[in-house]
Amino acid sequence: MKKRKLRGYVIPTICFMLIVTILFSSYKMYQILMISRNNTIKETIEPVVKEEEENVTPTINETKSIIRPYNQSTVVAQIPFYNADATDDEQKAALIYYEGIYMQNTGVLYTDNQSFDVLAVLDGTVKNIKEDEIMGNIIEIEHSKNLTTIYQSVDDVKVTVGASVSQGTVIAKSGANKLNTDSTNALHFEVYYKGELINPEEFYLYNYNDIMEK
To answer: Of 37, 99, 114, 192, which one has the greatest count of Cβ atoms within 10 A?
Structure first.
């Protein structure tokens, strides 16, 4: 029988086909393994993520509020703000009598049987400190271009002109004035908003963000 000689390109072609087949099989096996691995990782991670989401404490946006110029619970409003729209009895209660003259109260007179701290009701800058013959020591704090608070009849002043104060800072102690000789522990508090005097008791209820607009 006569031997036939294989052509020169046959063997390389067969080898190439075998290599391609092996590589293709390996690639498919790799894909199967990766899919299986990814599914396993996903099943492991998802419960952990879900558990972490359940344990997350929701963030609460806290809104600051305006505080009173004192923190002593025994302080009372002895003479309220004079309101032109109030009843006759309320208006009479808001009158201050001094040397034979009745005057409308432009703020609120707070008193106590004992000395109390006077607090800055909001963040601000001390614009003026002076001593008045009738009202005693006076501290003026500017909080924004529209808002200024006045603390009258105070003693032991603890701030200086130009100082920045934070809400709740003790700026003085209660003191005395000649309008109210019944108490030596008093604070006469006034609020100017947009250039006008407003009732401090209503001022405490104002929206913080609105009142502090620059």
So the answer is: 192
